[in-house]
Amino acid sequence: MTVMEQRGAYRPTPPPAWQHRTDPAPLLPDPEPYRVLGTEAAAKADPGLLRRLYAELVRGRRYNTQATALTKQGRLAVYPSSTGQEACEVAAALALEERDWLFPSYRDTLAVVARGLDPAHALTLLRGDWHTGYDPREHRIAPLSTPLATQLPHAVGLAHAARLKGDGVVALAMVGDGGTSEGDFHEALNFAAVWQAPVVFLVQNNGFAISVPLAKQTAAPSLAHKAVGYGMPGRLVDGNDAAAMHEVLSEAVSRARRGGGPTLVEAVTYRMEAHTNADDATRYRHDAEVDAWRDHDPILLLEREMAERGLLDDDEKRRVGEDAEAMAADLRTRMNQDPVLDPMDLFSHVYAEQTTQLREQAAQLRAELEAASEEAGEEAR
Amino acid sequence: MTTVAAKPATKPATMAQALGRALRDSMAEDPSVHVLGEDVGALGGVFRVTDGLTAEFGEDRCTDTPLAEAGILGTAVGMAMYGLRPVVEMQFDAFAYPAFEQLLSHVAKMRNRTRGTMPLPITVRVPYGGGIGGVEHHSDSSEAYYMATPGLHVVTPATVADAYGLLRASIASDDPVVFLEPKRLYWSKADWNPEAPSPVEPIGRAVVRRPGRSATLITYGPSVPVCLEAAEAARAEGWDLEVVDLRSLVPFDDETVAASVRRTGRAVVVHESNGFGGPGGEIAARVTERCFHHLEAPVLRVAGFDIPYPPPMLEKHHLPGVDRILDAVARLQWEAES
């Protein structure tokens, strides 16, 4: 039986015989965001995993501050910070196996780095020396997607193709709360459920789409509830609880790998910084609201738990901090070097073979460059 | 003992059949070729182009998708990322518009965005153009939108043999191709031997369909037969018209077009698409840039009017026909010669 035929036939029947195709009850999210840290469930969390999560969160926070600093120094064109959302970013990367694929949005540089990509290569797009700074197939990381939610159908198609080949590969696709209003979000979830594609959709509900709050985005009971309409389970999680995030995403990934189909995960979190360095958040939210989230900081929550269980001493904290500093220093050094640009690259990757027209245009640019360099040479003399 | 090869059995085939055969042969040859779209399975597509593919290759290879064009093309992107070679069917020209963002922002750009590491070999088949008596949203000529998007190839056949050869070439291409199928030629017939189909030609070469000396009609897709008819009618006026079938709008075959116009010294571009901002303006500019000193008259355009596509009972006034083409030819400043 083929993958598509497994879905079975659904034929319309007149009302007396009509029934739900599936029971909606098990698809509904929990009434409260799922939490691990600070609850009894935390006792079961693997100490090794908590240490790994902690190191990645600290490193991630440092990465965000370093990248933001680089925008102020003119080394990055723009940086959408994920400060406050590190638990979502890190858990998404760690929930995946090497063979799996990650489909990030533009705010998910951190997930890309946590998955193992060179921190500098992850910033190519935001520095602006090219669009994507890595080979997606080599790392199984799709390009950071700027058009909202458009990467979600890609994740579905890739997961579907992998399933057709029997490869056991899962795709995890990331989107924000604003992105859930896009048509591609709807179409991707619908295709995924119909095809039972091995995909996990992670919505980071950070409260804002640039300036627009969630209340103006949707009237749904929660974003996780949207899953039910597509016939897939919705999970509501505390997005600042790294252990909960890791557990829920890992479960969803395993379920997808087993052939159980897609899951929609809503992570409730908060964007502590402005949309990007170019944004002014004071125009649309109060400091008091931001301050309320400081007590629910993802690093703080994990530190408290680990300290309580004796998993984090000062030495460990210092070592993790130093590692993060070393990463930041290396990133700073490398990003302070000017990238090597070749203007002729403009024509290199448009088609497999350059068209006659592009060859002509490339020749024009080459001539312009040569003339400019001769002129510069003469001036130098 | 010598065997004499039997003469290939040619028989009348429609363009739709040739397109279906191209899909079938591509799928048989390459297991990574997958067809997906609306109604492409049991129904065989609303134009029956995919007839029999699901029966032969199964639902995993020829798949009825949910009714959502952005989703169809978006999932095709993901399939191509994983190494498949998807062929997407858009049901009608105007129904392809929801997929524009996927097409423009991802399909056309992915090779470029990833420095050539992740090209997307996707073929998007779009039935296009009018003349079939369709109600609104079923007759658009959408080629100008696609032509204006770097990274896409835009191909359109006008003959049964080209329908096969160009579709095979498009599917085999490592670049995305928007393959525009002239709806009103779906049922046009030609003698064709499906067992020895026409050779697969590289995309990007125009062809002279009818040699002539007086002027060149530059055209493509649904307007090719109209131009050939006009060329026959023009003989009565003493004009010997050459007809160039572009076959590919991107890449554009400047060489064949310019060579023809240099020979004839006059040119008319003919297409159904609106004139303003349509392909004809680009083509006329390219011809003028290359053939200025050979031209006896300005390059003229015969195009659809700059109106939303008309209702079916009025479409005959909109579509370029033989008379309108001959009128344009008559305006090519012949007085200077006498």
From TrEMBL, chain A:
InterPro entries: Alpha-ketoacid_DH_E1_comp (IPR050771), DH_E1 (IPR001017), PdhA/BkdA (IPR017596), THDP-binding (IPR029061). Residues 67-341 form the Dehydrogenase E1 component domain. SUPFAM superfamilies: Thiamin diphosphate-binding fold (THDP-binding) (SSF52518). Its cofactor is thiamine diphosphate. Keywords: Coiled coil, Oxidoreductase, Pyruvate, Thiamine pyrophosphate. It comes from the Bacteria. Pfam families: E1_dh (PF00676). Residues 1-26 are annotated as: Disordered. Residues 352-379 form a coiled coil. This is Pyruvate dehydrogenase (Acetyl-transferring) E1 component subunit alpha.
UniProtKB/TrEMBL annotation, chain B:
Residues 13-188 form the Transketolase-like pyrimidine-binding domain. Keywords: Oxidoreductase. The keyword DNA-binding does not apply. It is an enzyme of class 1 (oxidoreductase). GO terms for molecular function: branched-chain 2-oxo acid dehydrogenase activity; magnesium ion binding. InterPro entries: THDP-binding, Transketo_C/PFOR_II, Transketolase-like_Pyr-bd, Transketolase_C. It comes from the Bacteria. One of its GO terms (biological process) is branched-chain amino acid catabolic process. Its cofactor is thiamine diphosphate. Its EC number is 1.2.4.4. PANTHER family: 2-OXOISOVALERATE DEHYDROGENASE SUBUNIT BETA, MITOCHONDRIAL, 2-OXOISOVALERATE DEHYDROGENASE SUBUNIT BETA-RELATED. This is 3-methyl-2-oxobutanoate dehydrogenase (2-methylpropanoyl-transferring).
